[in-house]
Amino acid sequence: LLATAVEKKATEALSAATRAYAAIINGVSAASQLAGTQDLLFELAKLNLPDKSASTDTTFTGAGGKPLSPTLTTAPTGECTTGANKRADHQTQTDPDATKNAITVFSIQEKAASNQLGGALSVCAATSAGSPSTSNCKTWAVSVNNLKFVGGKLLELKENKLTRKRETDDDYAAKTGHQGKMPSEKTIRDLLKKIKAMKNAAATLTQTSPITDLKLISEAQEIKAAMARALKGKQGSYTDGKGKAEVDTLLKQAYGEDKKIVEGISKLAKEFKPNKAETGGAGDKQLQQIISVDNLAAAETYYTIKNFIYEEEQKKKDQASPSCPTKTDKPE
What we know:
This protein is of the alpha+beta class. The chain has 2 domains: 2-19 and 207-320, no CATH class; 21-84 and 97-203, no CATH class. It contains 9 helices and 11 strands. The chain has helices at 2-44, 57-61, 185-203, 210-218, 221-232, 244-255, 260-271, 276-279, 293-320; strands at residues 48-49, 52-56, 81-83, 86-87, 100-110, 122-126, 137-138, 146-150, 152-153, 155-165, 173-174. The strands form 4 sheets. It has a 4-stranded antiparallel β-sheet. A hairpin with a 7-residue loop joins β10 and β11. α1 runs antiparallel to α3 (185-203) and α1 packs antiparallel against α9. Residues 55-97 are annotated as: Disordered. This is Variant surface glycoprotein.
């Protein structure tokens, strides 16, 4: 009885794991893609056009013009790191809302042109040749004959703070409109939907002690009722006291001080090696060592079919042996 109940619970766990697998893998992939994109954006945000010192207009342009060569200096150990293979500490909100999941995503866009004299990425008239100072820029009201290019960064990062209510099917959303251009709002929304699905799928999976599960299973009312019938025949009834004492004694022996029964079952469960027919594998691994999704899916199919056959056989037995005594039956 316990073996059947444990097998049923194992089948349910395998089914849940199989259903959650695709969502979890897609979510992990989306999270990795999003994280990689964020690192890349922080690298690209360093793209810069250096200053060009002032010189006369003919010298500034020269016979071949004046080339503007951008520079891109990246972090030696990678973006968002404090050293080789050392990621910077994760920053959390100072006052997080316990009812919501929150995530911050950056997008990038071209930097807006400066509207100030001597502002970044602008050309101005300058009084002194060779001076790198932006204060050297003058208006045309002053008699000058030099040109100067003021450099600066070409791109800028925009922050998007998104939240969603926990334990709901709500999507991540920002209080304000989407900021930045790449990745686009749609790209971010699609990735966050996969991450949401991953979290929801992971929430359906639980990990508990097999001994605790076994104890809970055996103490369930339907198991007690089945144990009473097994011990006292079809007239056995735990709720009516027919076999109750025997069932309680058996459970006490199983989970009392000596715990002989539960330790024996636990030992068998830990050492159990499913054969090839059950997992499709080599049949050389213990159940708790099997991590292959294909093997777990095969085991789910095997035990589902086996459980179905068992239930059908039990139905036939119940139909052949009605619970109510007939005229030819003798009460026990």
